[in-house]
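Appendix B. Chain record.
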Amino acid sequence: MKKISVLLMLLLFSISFIFASGNSETMETASTGLKIAIVTTPSGVDDGSFNENNYDGCLAFVNNHPGASVTPLRDPSVTGANAIKLVKDIVSDYDVEVCCGYQFASITQIAKDNPNTNFILVDTFPIDNEVLSNVYAMMFAEQESGFFAGMAAALETKTGKVAIMNGVAYPSNVNYQYGFECGVKYANAKYDSKVECVEILSHAGIDVTGANIGGNYVKSFGDEITGKTIASQLIAKGVDVLFVAAGDSGKGAFAAAKSSNGRCKIIGVDVDQWEEGQNGKDNIILTSVLKNMAPNVERVLNEINDGTFVGENALLTAKTDSTGYVKEAGHNQLKADTIAKLDSAYILIKDGTIVPASNFGVQPDDFKIN
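Structure tokens predicted for this chain:
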């Protein structure tokens, strides 16, 4: 009887172990979350601006979903030539790829060939604006935030000379340029600012259609040396407020402003860049204009996770609180009167009364002021 009892106990133990192992495997599977890759421009996820803000959206999702993970990857080529190849090479390894920048517009065939992978595009739609079931593509009305930068610059300049410095003349950057020029034009008309937008002809931008659009372009998001050279040239021409939308090239402009002995303030881009502007006891940041990517990236990841995801090409604007400017105390140096005027303009942009020029609308010369 003792032998039978022992055998019975061993049998029961083995069965319970098998069930326990099975339950453990089930629990492990249940806890497994989305595997996310974020593919960026050469400046990577610590650029203090565009890429980092998208990464913050991924991190916010991961922090709220145990088991989920995000892997930063970057295309080291300055031109973005290898971006699509990188996306294709890793497509079978991840559930979601967050692709940051215009260079991912030609993702269409990869998305069609890999229907079980979802893609989040930031700053571009797929070529021909095709809507794909596994692609959420978001573009932003950067011209709105650029408009706020132009207004702020025009209302705060002491020399009457302001400028914008961009990286590459991709549509998003051209939107910033056109919006900035319209913001200056609006302030001149409404508040008699008499402000000039300074351009250096040798650094004019050539957009994706081959058109010369003026402005001041580094022609790279990863060239700090040229960024500093252009910014220094603009400061030498009397520019005392410089709006910088140039990725890592912008770090050169920050360096030029910090060494200008207070002659030039910077308007940051995409995110609050106050910390990057610290210069000893002083700060070179006048304000920053916003493109709220992080909350939108997190939102779409949540939709993928809970099964409500729908492919879409979405243009995000002030109406969804996706554009704006920093007016938080301690993170800007704007006069109270300037903030009040920006707030008034924000309402008019939100309701469609003010429509700044953009790649896909009127040109700056045709911008109408009511």
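Further analysis of this model is presented in Appendix C.
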